[in-house]
Backbone:
C-alpha cells in the first residue's frame, strides 16, 4: 500500500460523535467492495485513522474486526493495512490497544489470499517499530503460539513470516522469550503436520539472529543444525534457500558456538554449492564464504565486519520474507485437525544424501570438545571423506542404473515395434493371398462360363 501522509484530507471532515464515526467506518468498509468506490473509500478510511482521538481507538479497531472471511479481498486487506496506518500515525498512544491490534492481524493469517497475508507481515513490522512501550513479548507471544499450534497451512505461512518480520524489525527483542521458543519452533521441522517449512526456516533464522549468541544453548544447536542441514537437499528450492540463510545467520550470530560446527558444516555446504537454481546457488556460496572465514580473525576490524554482515543479512532476510509472501504460489493441501504436530517417530528421509548429513554432523559435534587425540580427529576426517566418496559413488550408480533402465525400456519398445511390424506384414501377406485366391477363382469361373456359352452357340 502507498505510504500514508501524516495529515488529513481537507475534503473529509472528522466525525462529530461516536455514532457518526461507527456509521462512517462501516459505510466505507461496504464501499470497499465496489470497484468504482474502492479508492475513495480507502482514502477516507485512511484519513479517519489518521485523525482519530485516543478515545476512539477501541471503537475503530472493533469496526475493523467486524469483517469476516466472507468479505471481498480489498476489504480484508485494507482492514489489516489500517493497522499499519494506525501504528505509524499514533505510535505509543496505541500501547493499551496493542493486544487487540495483534488479534486483528492474527485473525487474517488463515486468509487464502497472499496479498492479505503480506499486509499482515507489514502490519507486524509497523507495530513493532512504532509501538515500543509494551514489551516485545505482547506481540511475539501470540504469533509464536499460532505458529506452534495452528494446523492450517495458510496460518502457518502467515505466522512464520509475521514472526520473522517482527523479530528482524525489533530494536530490543525479548531474548529470553525467543531463546525459550527456539526449541519448540525447531521441533516443527520434523513435524508432518507443519507444511510451511521454508517460512519456518526463515523464522528460525530470524530468532537465531535476534538471540545473537547471548545465552545460547549448545544442546539446542546440537539438535537444530543437523535438521537445518537436511533441508539443503530438499526438493523445494525455497526450502534450500531458506536453510542456507539460516546457516548464514548462525555463522554471523553464534560467534562462540559456530566454530565448533565449522568442519561438518563446510563439508555439507561444499557439496551443495552447485545448486541448479541460481538464487539458491548464490545464497549457498555466500553462506559458504561466511563459514570459511569463521574464526580466522578476531580483530576489532573483523568483528565490525561481521556485525555489518549480520545487519545486512537481517535487512535482506526481512525484505525477502515480505516479498516471498507476495510471490508465493502454494498448493492447498488438506490437513487433519487432529494430526499431532510432534510425532513420536519422525520418518526418515528417502534421499540417501539426507540420511548421511545428520549422523555426519552429530559425529563431528560429539568429537569437538578437544579431548580426543589427533589420531581420532584424523580418523573422523577419513570417515567424512569416505562418506562423501560413498555418496558420490551412490549418485553415479543411480545415474548408471537410470541409463540402463532407459536403454532397457528403449530395447523393449523397439522389440515391441518390430513384433507389431511383423504382425502387420503377415496380415498383409494373408490379405494378398486371399485376394489372389479370390481373383483366381473368379477368373476360372469366368473362363468356364465362356466355354459353356461357346459350346451352346455351336450346338
Residues:
Amino acid at each position: 500500500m502507498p505510504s500514508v501522509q501524516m495529515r488529513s484530507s481537507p475534503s473529509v471532515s472528522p466525525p462529530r460523535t461516536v455514532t457518526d464515526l461507527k456509521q462512517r467506518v462501516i459505510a466505507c468498509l461496504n464501499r470497499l467492495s465496489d470497484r468504482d468506490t474502492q479508492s475513495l473509500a480507502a482514502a477516507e478510511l485512511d484519513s479517519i485513522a489518521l485523525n482519530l482521538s485516543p478515545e476512539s481507538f477501541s471503537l475503530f479497531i472493533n469496526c475493523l474486526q467486524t469483517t469476516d472471511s466472507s468479505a471481498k479481498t480489498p476489504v480484508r486487506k485494507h482492514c489489516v493495512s489500517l493497522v499499519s496506518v494506525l501504528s505509524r500515525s499514533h505510535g505509543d498512544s496505541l500501547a493499551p490497544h496493542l493486544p487487540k491490534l495483534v488479534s486483528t492481524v492474527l485473525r487474517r493469517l488463515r486468509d487464502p489470499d497472499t496479498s492479505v497475508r503480506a499486509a499482515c507481515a507489514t502490519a507486524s513490522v509497523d507495530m513493532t517499530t512504532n509501538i515500543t512501550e509494551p514489551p516485545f513479548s505482547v506481540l511475539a507471544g501470540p504469533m509464536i503460539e499460532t505458529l506452534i499450534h495452528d494446523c492450517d497451512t495458510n496460518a502457518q505461512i502467515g505466522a512464520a513470516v509475521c514472526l520473522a518480520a517482527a523479530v528482524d524489525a525489533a530494536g530490543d527483542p525479548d531474548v529470553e522469550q525467543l531463546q525459550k521458543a527456539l526449541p519448540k519452533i525447531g521441533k516443527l521441522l520434523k513435524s508432518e503436520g507443519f507444511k510451511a517449512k521454508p517460512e519456518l526456516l526463515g523464522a528460525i533464522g530470524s530468532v537465531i539472529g535476534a538471540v545473537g549468541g547471548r545465552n545460547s544453548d549448545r544442546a539446542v544447536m546440537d539438535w537444530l543444525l543437523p535438521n537445518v542441514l537436511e533441508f539443503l537437499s530438499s526438493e523445494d528450492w525455497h526450502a534450500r534457500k531458506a536453510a542456507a540463510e539460516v546457516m548464514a545467520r548462525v555463522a554471523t550470530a553464534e560467534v562462540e558456538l559456530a566454530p565448533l560446527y565449522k568442519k561438518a558444516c563446510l563439508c555439507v555446504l561444499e557439496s551443495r554449492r552447485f545448486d541448479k537454481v541460481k538464487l539458491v546457488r548464490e545464497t549457498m556460496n555466500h553462506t559458504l564464504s561466511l563459514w570459511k572465514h569463521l574464526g580466522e580473525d578476531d580483530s576489532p576490524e573483523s568483528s565490525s565486519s561481521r556485525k555489518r554482515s549480520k545487519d545486512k543479512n537481517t535487512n535482506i532476510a526481512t525484505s525477502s520474507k515480505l516479498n516471498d509472501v507476495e510471490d508465493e504460489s502454494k498448493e492447498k493441501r488438506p490437513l487433519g485437525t487432529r494430526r499431532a504436530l510432534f510425532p513420536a517417530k519422525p520418518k526418515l528421509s528417502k534421499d540417501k544424501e539426507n540420511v548421511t548429513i545428520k549422523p555426519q554432523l552429530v559425529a563431528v559435534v560429539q568429537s569437538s570438545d578437544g579431548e580426543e587425540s589427533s589420531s581420532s580427529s584424523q580418523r573422523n576426517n577419513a570417515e567424512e571423506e569416505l562418506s562423501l566418496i560413498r555418496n558420490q559413488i551412490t549418485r553415479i550408480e543411480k545415474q548408471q542404473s537410470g541409463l540402463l533402465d532407459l536403454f532397457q525400456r528403449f530395447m523393449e519398445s523397439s522389440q515391441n515395434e518390430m513384433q507389431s511390424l511383423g504382425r502387420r506384414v503377415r496380415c498383409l501377406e494373408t490379405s494378398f493371398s486371399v485376394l489372389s485366391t479370390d481373383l483366381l477363382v473368379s477368373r476360372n469361373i469366368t473362363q468356364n462360363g465362356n466355354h459353356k456359352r461357346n459350346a451352346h452357340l455351336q450346338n
Summary: Residues 31 and 37 are 6 Å apart (CA to CA). The chain has 17 helices and no strands.
